[in-house]
Amino acid sequence: MRISLSLCLAALFTVCLTPAVAQDATRQIPDTPRNSEINAPDVLHITDRLAQTPAAREALQVFQANKQTATQKAGTTAIRQSLGDRATFRVMKNVATNPSWEEKSFTLSATSAVANIWVEDGELSLGNVSDADIVALEDALLLSTPAASVDPARGIVENNNFYFGNPPNIDGDGQLDILLYDISEGGSNNNFFVAGFVTPEDLSPTGNGNFKDILYLDTNPGISSRPITSVLATAAHEYQHLIHYNYDLFEQTFINEGLSEWAEVMNGYPSRTMSFLSDPATYNIRLLEWESGDNILLDYQRAGLFTGYLAERMSPEALGAITRNPNRGRRGYEEIINQQGLDFEELLKDYHTANLLNNGSLDPAFQYLNPTYANIGTIPTTEVDGQFATETPTTTTFIEAGAVSYLVWDNVADFVLNMDTIDPFDALRARIAVRVLLEKANGETSFEDLPLPLEETYYAGDYASLTLIVTHVKAELTSRVGLTYNAQWGTPVNGIATAVQFDNGQVASDGFFSLGSDADGAVATRFDVPDGGQSTLQEVSLSPYFVNQFNNSTVPDDAPRDLTLKVWETGSDGRPGAEIFSLAVTDPRTTGISSSALNHFSVDLTPYQDQLSNLPATIFIGYAEAGNDPNYMVVGASTYATEDRSFVVLSDGNWGALWDIQFSDSGAQEFPLQNTVVPVRALFVTTSLPVAIDDEVLADNRFELATNFPNPFQSQTTIPYTLPTASAVKLVVYNVLGQEVQTLIDQFQPAGNYSVTFQADSLPSGLYLYTLEAGSNRQTRRMTVVH
What we know:
By secondary structure, the chain is α+β, with helices and mostly antiparallel strands.
């Protein structure tokens, strides 16, 4: 039976089952995944580009020169206007492609002592700007700002005036003129719009502009068709630029745009999504660089977040003073920062630490307090799980000026680190600051700052994670610094880790299907538990989609994304059987999704080891709906042609094999799920079980002196060895000069596996040798003591 379904959110399909499965079921398929930042028209930021034109640069130079010589004729047009007055202004058209000027008629729709709001007559007659729009604009621009503002009792104009400084007041009337009209972008591309701008051309009496303090805001496609907050945030942003013209001839773009980004947050509007933190290639960019081009949105994010962090460490008044400071680049920052008793390079290290941790438990400087930055968090540059290896070989990395590299090692013991600049010069070393974050296995955390070079830097004990935050603190430079590093650590104390993954990281063609909104909807994938000891399920990674991530969904973007992680035994029929474990989970991901690439998140199961140890040989791991809610889960199956490992709960409540399920549309076109798998990943940790050894077994074994562990070590290490036959045994430790340090064993021993503890508290740091002699066998190894 084929069932025709229709829902407004998507094109829908019917799940049809082969005769091998008795129960029919229905599942809907959503439309393509959406990313609001991708599908929405891009805001084209034009002010910086306009300020670089020859006409704008000349106008700004004339304005600044007139200020210095006091020849500016202010007050010549200082006539206050009345509501309903009409006036002609020159406005820019084809702003993005071929800027030119034209005249338009405007009506004064709101006024105060600090600003006038003018609306173009054509926009009023077309109804693109309503009376309600004007009231909302007047309230926010002239009277009050949202509760998150630094001063909600002031409008945007007064807040910017108070914190950043005075506008140019080129016409002497003391009022900002805000012009709302349909800004013509130019060209045929409809996927961008200019939200607003200011231009220095308004500051010259002989230029193309109006010789007034003008802020231009866009009304097309009508203010009512996009959130009024978008218009208001643009006004806060662009007005900072206009104020900046009054104090600085040619400010560095990163600083100027960062201050304008903060002007939005300062006035109570949310910041951008900081997607640049999700990729080392986009956060390891020279701090003060402004790339423009395809990466311009990332430039705005970087500038906005750094300025937002400065606001966390200084008062709004102090931060706003950067606008009025005539110095450029680092000097412009540093003068104000130093006045607050802060150091620029220390603050830069704290900024990069806050982006990784966003937690103030170690130091309040490592956390953002403004709610708009609550979800800030970056990913490591590299991350190594110490359960899979015992060393990081010599590695080279480069860090851009003012940028950072995050190097993370998880699950390590007795860690030894070496790091230096590629060219070992003190001048280069001074450009790099290394901060070490330590989280011990018992949860204790700490940090320390270390100068280069790091030579055999040793951390004794077991660590859940050890992180290096490596910052290039000379943000004013343009050159990067190259570093080399290597690390060694002892045998992992938690056992040997095995990561199991079946998906290829992509959603298969036509691989989307939903679980529906039923509370019993679930999927599961079979895993073979590693043998060779006691295996524990330590971590599971999932990549579900939710219906509100898809085009045309009516479910709000902020609807909860919850699920239930489950582990089942394997039943006698090879399908999921009795439930072993269940855990309610909220999806922590904040980034957008792609229609093809899977985006896994991990669930740490170490707190539940009692339930997830002593596992059977095969288990199923998957997830289920967390109750009835409209934001149901959607599965993106991945290509996997080896065997059918995944199952889905059907409409009759029974498990159906994924390869037996296929979709068909209303035209009977089929979309089978054969050769796919539900993408679930697992991390198992296996600890060896003690094995009884007797002489008969050992007779076939080789004489062996094993590597001591940990190595390097601080005070104590263990030396294992194996004797295949009974013999006289001598184990001696020597220094590098061949002098005997200590005899650990000197006696007759039967065949067997042995270990002996060596205490090195009284020995100096350095390299030592240990030699095992048994009968005619002799073997020597090296170990390192580090204090």
